[in-house]
């Protein structure tokens, strides 16, 4: 398999209802709060996909049709405000959950508390906490900071296939919900290519290794191929916590179309595989 530079969303679901912002003195039980927060995460993903489509539509509108342009801009603005409010509710829920957990671990060892914790873990809600912290680690509003390393899905054209590359954020346009990113690898002339991409084509790479969620064996991931700046689809063979062959944490993974060879990759460069359309 040629690893020089080749290869290439988030599935959305309609939230049945959009939970409202909590009132100042209103604190639901932990299980209900988890459910509300997860609903908001689904809503955020749904709105991001909608906003990306609206952004593409705005760019394709013909000139000389001001009424259509105004309508599209108004709709895009409304959806952007909805997304901001959904993110605010998500972060509010996460902060409350963290506060509850801190309080429980510090001073509540009662049988009732233990039963609640077991119930939440049985429902599979705790497993989502690292992913939510990962999402909220971006700057306020969920925007990836300028200078941050990312995995970026470059568009395909007649001369090149779509691929995921290692890049850095140069800027973000809130109006279009798009990033300008710069390829980490220079071309043969020393020039680094830049791309303007929708938010769903850019995945943040965490700086803090402790904030990176660990994926279990058998999980499908997007991982940096050794000695390249390209990401490819792979399957986890062994997560870092189970891999004792190295002094530093490393995944053991198998890339697609790589003749079944096992490779290693650092946790920062192993991302949940995006289910983009």
UniProtKB/TrEMBL annotation:
Segments forming domain SGF29 C-terminal: 140-277
> Does the record carry rRNA processing as a key word?
no
Q: Which UniProt keywords apply?
A: Nucleus, Transcription, Transcription regulation
Its annotated compartments are: Nucleus
Main location group: nucleus
Pfam families with a match to the protein in the record: SGF29_Tudor
Outline the segment boundaries, as ranges, of region: Disordered: 1-21, 102-137, 257-277
Question: What is one GO cellular-component annotation here?
Answer: SAGA complex
Note whether Oxidoreductase occurs among the keywords: no
**PROSITE patterns assigned:** SGF29_C (PS51518)
* Protein name per the record: SAGA-associated factor 29
UniProt organism field: Entomortierella parvispora
